[in-house]
C-alpha cells in the first residue's frame, strides 16, 4: 500500500493511532518483565507494508521486541534493531522511541519469497548475518551499540543469544505475531533476571533467586498466543493467570503508537546534497519521488523546487 504526498504539508498523512496499554511492566523480587500487546497499532503498521505473511510475522515480532526494550529507557531517545541477513531477507530495521512510537521495514528478494511458507522461521528467512541493537540518546553523540552473529531458530532466540553475550544477567524472550480474527496482532513477553539488592549476595539468597528465575521462565513458557491476543483478557489478569503462584507486582502501563518520523523537509535536505546532473537523472516527467520505507509514503518533488 502506497500513498502519494501531493500537498505541501511537511509530514505524511499516516494513521494517528495510540494504544494506551501496549506495555505492562511487572516485577518479581529477583526479576522484572514486560508484557507486550501492540493491539490495533500492530495491524495499522503491518498491513500498510503489504508484505507476504512470513515477512509480516517477522516484522510484527521485531516491533514487539523493540517496543518492550524501549519501554525501559530512562531518557529521551530510541531503541533500534537492525538485522543484516544473507537469506531471502537481506535487511530488517525496527525501532521504538521512549514515547512508544514504532516503525519498521524489511528488504527481501521478491523473486524468491514465494518459495517460503507463511510459517517460515527467522533462521530460514535470514540464514546467516548480524544482529545489532542500538540505544540512541536524543541530541547526544554517545550512543550504545552491540552486535552479535545471528544464532537461533526464532527471532526471540536470536535476541536471547544477544543478551547472553552482552549482559550480565539472562533474559527470557517470547515473541508472537499472527493474523488473529482477520487482524494482524503482535506482542510478547520479555523477562530479565536482575542483581540482588545487596552488594554482597549471600548464598541462600542467590540460590533462592535462581530457583525463582527457573520457575518464572517455566510459567512464562505456558503463555499462548490466543491469551495474548484476547482483547477481553486484561493484562493484569493475564499476568495473574501466569504467575499467581509467585509474589509479583504490576507497574503502570505504557503507550505504543504508530510512529514514523519521516518528513518532507528532511528528504528535501537529502536531495539538496545531490548534484544537478544526479537530480536530472532521478527526475521523471519533471518530478522526483522519494519513498519512505518505514511508512510506504511517496513524497513528490518538482524538479524545479530542488
UniProtKB/TrEMBL annotation:
Top-level taxon: Bacteria
GO BP terms in the entry: protein refolding
GO molecular function, a single term: unfolded protein binding
Cellular component annotations (GO), alphabetically ordered: cytoplasm
Pfam families: HSP33 (PF01430)
Gene source species: Commensalibacter melissae
Keyword check for Zinc: yes
Keyword Protein biosynthesis: no
InterPro entries: Heat_shock_Hsp33, Heat_shock_Hsp33_C, Heat_shock_Hsp33_N, Hsp33_helix_hairpin_bin_dom_sf
Coiled coil: none
Keyword vocabulary terms for this entry: Chaperone, Cytoplasm, Disulfide bond, Redox-active center, Zinc
Protein name (record): Heat-shock protein Hsp33
Amino acid at each position: 500500500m502506497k500513498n502519494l504526498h501531493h500537498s505541501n504539508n511537511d509530514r505524511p498523512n499516516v494513521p494517528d493511532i495510540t494504544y494506551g496499554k501496549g506495555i505492562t511492566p511487572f516485577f518479581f523480587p529477583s526479576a522484572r518483565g514486560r508484557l507486550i500487546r501492540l493491539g490495533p497499532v500492530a495491524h495499522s503498521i503491518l498491513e500498510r507494508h503489504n508484505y507476504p505473511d512470513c515477512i509480516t510475522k517477522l516484522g510484527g515480532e521485531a516491533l514487539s521486541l523493540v517496543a518492550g526494550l524501549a519501554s525501559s529507557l530512562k531518557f529521551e531517545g530510541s531503541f533500534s534493531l537492525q538485522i543484516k541477513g544473507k537469506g531471502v531477507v537481506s535487511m530488517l530495521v525496527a525501532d521504538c522511541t521512549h514515547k512508544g512510537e514504532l516503525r519498521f521495514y524489511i528488504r527481501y528478494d521478491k523473486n524468491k519469497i514465494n518459495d517460503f511458507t507463511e510459517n517460515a522461521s527467522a533462521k530460514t528467512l535470514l540464514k546467516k548475518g548480524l544482529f545489532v541493537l542500538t540505544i540512541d540518546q536524543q541530541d547526544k553523540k554517545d550512543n550504545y551499540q552491540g552486535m552479535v552473529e545471528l544464532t537461533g531458530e526464532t527471532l526471540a532466540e536470536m535476541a536471547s543469544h544477544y543478551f547472553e553475550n552482552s549482559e550480565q544477567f539472562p533474559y527470557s524472550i517470547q515473541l508472537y505475531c499472527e493474523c488473529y480474527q482477520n487482524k494482524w496482532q503482535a506482542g510478547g513477553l520479555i523477562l530479565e533476571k536482575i542483581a540482588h539488592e545487596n552488594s554482597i549476595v549471600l548464598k541462600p539468597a542467590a540460590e533462592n533467586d535462581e530457583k525463582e528465575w527457573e520457575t518464572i521462565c517455566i510459567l512464562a513458557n505456558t503463555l499462548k498466543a490466543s491469551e495474548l491476543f484476547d482483547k477481553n483478557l486484561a493484562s493484569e489478569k493475564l499476568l495473574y493467570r501466569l504467575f499467581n503462584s509467585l509474589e509479583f507486582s504490576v507497574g503502570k502501563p505504557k503507550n505504543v503508537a504508530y510512529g514514523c518520523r519521516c518528513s518532507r523537509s528532511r528528504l528535501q535536505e537529502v536531495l539538496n546534497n545531490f548534484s544537478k546532473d544526479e537530480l536530472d537523472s532521478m527526475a521523471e516527467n519533471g518530478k522526483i519521488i522519494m519513498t519512505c520505507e518505514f511508512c510506504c509514503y511517496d513524497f513528490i518533488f518538482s524538479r524545479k523546487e530542488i
